[in-house]
Design a protein that fits this description.
mainly alpha
């Protein structure tokens, strides 16, 4: 979730305004380092929960590494949170001490850690995938097709912009994906006609917004400053825009944001029920199924690693444990012997 590397490697440290309230300082710091709005909300939530754990009136400067250990251990031993959730809380609290209070906790924390149990991902068969997708329609069907057909994560799909869809080359560009990385993936041929229609629809909606004095879309701060008119250009508009304009949470302007992810999540859940698939299928299952089916049809694992945007091929290798390896075709070495 944290935006790493690109904005973390800096020579000069940012110091938030000490006259502001603590949470405003945290927010100011997060925005200076270009963390996403979603990460901002998550970090603020964890920091508040950490402070409330100690009564809500104690300033974090009065707490120390052992206090952080106590809270993180409570999350693991009492609340029973998953390892990833505990790590998310640690990232938020570490940011507070390192970047806001200038009191880094590096090497000082050894909490009880939630155990991480790697499990093979849930994957649908091609028949199950076909049944699920057949029970979807409209924009949600198109989004599900993209996640399965191109291997996109849920938010990568939701945040696609017009310029990320190259109908000529048949490519989809993922900008600022997990780990703030860019990548290129394939575009299913079946989707091209629908995507052309969707692009035309967004263009018409955008023209209407411009005529009504709107037409802006959110851009990363650096781009918004460098290209003052880019926010109104068609290329930057979301491929799946919201039906209504909304107030930008970080400025007083009205903009057209992308659709909420909850819509496609509910649509997938309903389609799974209608299809009679008795597995715990989510939007991410479509990405897992993409990876597994690509391997089953002979895609090189290194190429699949690039399509999925994995930093390490060992992450991609997890799909080799769930792919259909045609076990029935295998012959036991005992059956190869000539003994009676």
């Amino acid at each position: 979730m944290e935006s790493k590397g690109k904005f973390r490697d800096r020579g000069k440290k940012f110091t938030p305004d000490p006259s502001k309230k603590l949470m405003d300082q945290v927010r100011e710091c997060l925005r200076y380092y270009h963390y996403s709005y979603r990460t901002e909300q998550t970090y603020l939530s964890w920091i508040l929960r950490y402070l409330h754990f100690f009564g809500g009136k104690t300033h974090p400067r009065e707490l120390n590494a052992s206090s952080v250990e106590k809270y993180l251990s409570h999350l693991a031993s009492v609340d029973g949170v998953a390892a990833a959730t505990q790590r998310q809380a640690l990232n938020a609290i570490a940011f507070l001490y390192r970047d806001v209070l200038d009191l880094p906790l590096d090497g000082q924390i050894a909490p009880i850690r939630s155990k991480k149990h790697p499990r093979p991902p849930t994957v649908m068969t091609e028949d199950e995938t076909n049944r699920v997708l057949s029970n979807m329609t409209g924009i949600h069907r198109m989004m599900a097709d993209i996640m399965y057909g191109s291997g996109l994560r849920l938010m990568e799909c939701v945040r696609l912009r017009i310029q990320d869809v190259d109908l000529g080359q048949g490519r989809i560009f993922v900008r600022g994906g997990k780990g703030n990385k860019d990548r290129t993936t394939i575009m299913p041929e079946k989707l091209k006609p629908m995507l052309r229609t969707q692009v035309d629809s967004v263009k018409a909606l955008h023209a209407e917004d411009l005529a009504n004095g709107h037409g802006e879309v959110w851009l990363p701060d650096a781009l918004a400053r460098k290209y003052s008119n880019a926010a109104k250009e068609i290329g930057w508009q979301y491929l799946f825009p919201s039906k209504n304009l909304s107030d930008d949470p970080r400025s007083p302007r009205k903009m057209r944001h992308h659709v909420m992810e909850s819509g496609i999540q509910k649509a997938v859940k309903l389609a799974v029920q209608k299809a009679g698939v008795d597995k715990r299928v989510t939007c991410h299952t479509l990405r897992h199924s993409f990876a597994t089916h690509m391997l089953e049809h002979g895609t090189n694992i290194r190429m699949l690693q690039q399509l999925l945007g994995h930093a390490d091929v060992t992450t991609t290798e997890i799909y080799t444990h769930v792919m259909n390896k045609d076990i029935e075709r295998l012959i036991s070495p005992l059956d190869r012997l000539s003994i009676p």
